[in-house]
């Protein structure tokens, strides 16, 4: 089965690079220092590796969800209502997947690279682990078992990630009443903060209502300090992607020694 977002990939990538160029110009004119050359190059290298990994794992993702869809409790049709329902369910699952990725160390090993960026800009959005596609489909198995079409699940998850690209910026300030329903740049800046009050907050993908419902919402009230709580990690993209796993297995080894 062809990846449902494949026909639009080139247009999405062109749009992304245009926005990044515009943000670089904004940062330069406003003297915001939102970009640093070495970090930007690391972000772009990780991004290219992530794009390659999507080709490698697209078949695995679809086949995993299709398998469970074939054993679902129902078979729901490809309609607009079902698509919107899938988008809503996918966003709900994403919230818990994202929250678990912060609280459970094996998943944090995959997710750490995304929080290692020391600056908030659009290139940091795709500072994503090249191997995350191995675990992410497993969280969406319940949606497939409910009878939601596998291609709808993959497409809505992809759209969820596309939306989050626009959240990684300092160009946009607070958005008033919108902050009560949708995840916004302000809410997501909080999520990337290493400030004590910002740790493990605002896990939402598209909707922020899950954070409000489950007690993880935090508004942006003080200047955000970006990066890991341990500070700067590296500019080496391979180290950035793999360090989470290295740290995790070191922890396991130390626990065995003790």
Automatic annotation (TrEMBL):
Span-the-membrane segments of this chain are: 12-28, 40-58, 78-97, 128-148
Q: What is its main location?
A: membrane
One Pfam family linked to the record: FA_hydroxylase
- Report which superkingdom the organism of origin falls in: Bacteria
Q: Which top class of enzyme applies to this chain?
A: oxidoreductase
Could you tell me the EC number(s) of this protein?
1.-.-.-
> Domain Fatty acid hydroxylase, which positions?
83-216
Compartment list: Endomembrane system
- Output this protein's name: Sterol desaturase family protein
- What's a Gene Ontology MF term here? oxidoreductase activity
């Amino acid at each position: 089965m062809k990846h449902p977002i494949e026909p639009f990939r080139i247009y999405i990538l062109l749009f992304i690079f245009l926005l990044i160029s515009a943000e670089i110009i904004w940062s330069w004119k406003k003297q915001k220092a939102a970009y640093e050359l070495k970090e930007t190059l690391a972000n772009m290298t990780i991004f290219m590796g992530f794009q390659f990994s999507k080709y490698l794992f697209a078949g695995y993702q679809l086949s995993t969800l299709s398998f469970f869809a074939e054993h679902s409790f129902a078979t729901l049709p490809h309609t607009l209502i079902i698509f919107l329902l899938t988008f809503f369910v996918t966003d709900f699952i994403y919230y818990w997947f994202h929250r678990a990725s912060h609280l459970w160390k094996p998943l944090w090993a995959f997710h750490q690279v995304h929080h290692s960026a020391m600056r908030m800009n659009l290139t940091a959005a795709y500072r994503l682990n090249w191997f995350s596609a191995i675990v992410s489909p497993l969280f969406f198995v319940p949606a497939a078992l409910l009878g939601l079409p596998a291609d709808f699940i993959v497409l809505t998850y992809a759209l969820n990630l596309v939306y989050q690209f626009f959240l990684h910026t300092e160009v946009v300030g607070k958005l008033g009443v919108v902050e009560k329903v949708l995840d916004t740049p302000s809410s997501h800046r909080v999520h990337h903060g290493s400030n004590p009050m910002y740790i493990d907050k605002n896990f939402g993908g598209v909707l922020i209502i899950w954070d409000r419902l489950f007690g993880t919402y935090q508004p942006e009230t003080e200047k955000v300090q970006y990066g890991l709580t341990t500070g700067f990690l590296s500019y080496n993209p391979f180290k950035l992607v793999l360090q989470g796993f290295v740290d995790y297995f070191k922890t396991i080894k130390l626990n065995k020694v003790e």
